[in-house]
Amino acid sequence: MGLVVKFGSIEIEFRKRATRPRYLAYLVPFVAVIVALLVGSVLLLSEGVDPLTAYLALFNTAFGNPYSLSETIVKAIPLMLAALGTAITFLAGFWNIGAEGQLQMGALAATWVTLTFSGLPSFVIIPWTMFVAFAVGGVWGMIPAFFKVKLGMDEILTTLMMNYVAILAVTYFIYGPWRDPAAYGNPRTQLVAESARIPAILGTRIHLTLFVAIGIAVLLYWVLRRTKFGLEIRIIGGNKDAAKYAGINLFKNLLLVTLVGGGIAALAGMGEVSGLYYCLPKSFSPGYGYTAVVVAWLARLNPLAIPVSAFLFGGLLNGGYGIQMVFAVPIALVNAIQALVLFFVLALSIFYEYNIIVRRRR
Amino acid sequence: MVQDIIVGFLSTSIAVGTSLLLGAIGEIFAERSGVMNLGVEGMMIMGALSGFLTLTLTNDPWIATLVATLVGGVMSLIHAVLSVTLRANQILSGLALTMFGVGVSGTLGRSLLGVSAKGLPVVPIPVLSEIPYIGPILFQHDPITYISYIAVPVAWVVLFKTEFGLTVRAVGEDPGVADSLGINVYRTRYVCIFIGGLLSGLAGAFLSVAYARMWIEGMTAGRGWIVIVITIFSMWNPVRAVVGAFLFGGVTTLSFIFQGLGVGIPAEVLLMMPYLFTIAVLLVVSQEAVRKRISAPTSMYKPYVRGER
Fold it and tell me: What is the pTM of this model?
C-alpha cells in the first residue's frame, strides 16, 4: 500500500512503481505539450482571438512549408546549444540557470574576434571565433561553480544575477564603443567580414552551426554513457555524499562540467553573430537561455532528445512570431505557453515514480 | 541642503525596499516550512498587473491591492500543488511560475501600457511624521509601506512565539518527525506557500498601485530574485530581512541617482550595480552562514513522502 489521499468519497493512491515503463518517456512530454496548448487557449480567448484559428496559423508558420521549417530550425539552433549546455550541468546536480548570460558572453566574444581579426581567412577565423566564444562562455559559466564549491554560494542566484550583468554588458557595447555609425534606427555593431561568416544551407538561413550542435549532442551522449567523466558527473548528480565517498573530486568535476556547459551555451550566441545576423544586434536573444531550461527538461536531460525538443520549441517561437503579426498577439504569450509546458511536464512526472490509482470508496 | 538630499535618499530607499521586504517575509515562511519558491518574480509581476488592471476598472486602490494580493496567493498554489502534492522539483516549479507570470502579464498587460491612474496616496502619519529627519524618512509613505512595517514584528512573533510558528519550523527541519507528532506536513506547507504568495502579490500591488501608479511590462525588473537573496541574507528571520531590504533599496536608489546626475559612468554599468551588489552580498552571507553554521531549513528542496526517506 502506498500513500492514500482522500477527497470525500474518492480515494487517490500513490503506489511506488517497481519498474518504469518506456512508453512514459514519450507519452509524458506529448501530453504536457497538448495540455499546455489547451490551457494557453484561455489566454488567446482573453485577447479576443479564436484559439483554433490561431493555433492552426501557429502550426502553419512553424511547420507548414519548407520556408517555415527552415526558419523553425534557425530558432532551434541556439535553443539546442543552450539546452545541451544546461542539461549537462543539471545532470551534475548543478542548477545552472545561466545559459542566457553564457550565450550573451559568447556573442560578445565572437563579435570581438570578428571585429579584431577581420583579415584572417575563413578556415582560421571561424574556428578561432568558436574557440574564443567557447572559452569566454565557459569561464563565465565556471564562476558560479567556483563560488559554490569554495564559498557555499547558491548557484541558482549567482547564475541568474550574472545573466542580467551579461545582457547589460552586451547592451553597453552595442550602444557604446562598438556601435556602427551606419546603423541608425537599430543599434548594432559593424557587419562581420565575409570571411568570418559561417555559411548557410543554400536558399535558407540555416547556418552550419546546426551540424556543430547535433555533433555536440551525439558527443555528449557518448561522453555521458561511455566515459569516466560522464559516470562521475552522473554520480555527483545523484548523490554528492556518495560521490565523495567514492573518491570523486567534486571541485574538479564541477568546474569541468560548468566550463563545458558554459562553452556549449556560448556557441549559441556565437552562431547568432557569425552565422545569422553577421553582427551583434540589439536584443538578439528572446530569452533562448531560459527557454533552454524547458527544452532540456522536456527532453529529460537526454542529449539525443534535446534536438527534437529544441525543434519543437523553435517551432513554437517561430509560430509565435507568425501569429504576433497576423492576430496582434504579443510574443509574451509564447513565454506563457513554455511555462505551461514545464508545469505539466513537472506535474506528469509523478507518473514516472508512482502509479496513481483513483477509486471510489465504498 | 545636504540634509535634504540624505533624507530624500533614505526615504526613497525605504519606498524601493518595501516590495523587497514584503516579498522576503513571504519567502521566509515558505522556506521555513521547507519549500523554496523561485516564483516570487512571477507572482509579484502578476500582482502588479492585476492590481493595476483592477485600479483602472474600479478606481479603488484598496480593492486593487486586495485583488493583487489574492492573485499572488492563487499563483502560489500552483507551486504548492506541484512541489508538495505532486513532489515535483521545487527549483523548476518555481522557475516555471516566474516564466508563467512574466509571460501572462506581458500578454494581458498590453492594453494598460501608457495608462495612468490615481493609486494609493502618500499618507503622512500624524505627529510621527513631524519628527525631524525620522518623520520624513519613515512616516511619509503610502499605506502598503506601513503594512510592511507591521508585517515584520507580526511575522517574527508568528514564527518564533506561536505554536503555528513552531509547527512551521518543525516541518521545515524534519517533516518525518513532525508527521509522527501528528502535524499535517502538507497542510502546513500549503499555508506557508500561500502566505508567501499573498505577500508577493501585495509587493506587486505596491509597485503598480502605490509606487509607479502605472503598468510597465517587466516592471519587477528582477526584484523577485533579490527577494530570494534577502531571504538568505536574513538567515530566515523577518527582522534581519529589514536590513537586507533597505540595503538593496538603497543600492537601487543610488543607481537611479547616479543616472540622474549623469556622472560619466555608462548607464549600463550603473544598472549592473544592484545585480553585482547582490552577488557580493551573497558571497559575504554565504561565508557568514558557514562560520556560524547556519543553513537553510534542512528539508528544503526535498519533497516529503510519508514512509519514504
Answer: 0.93
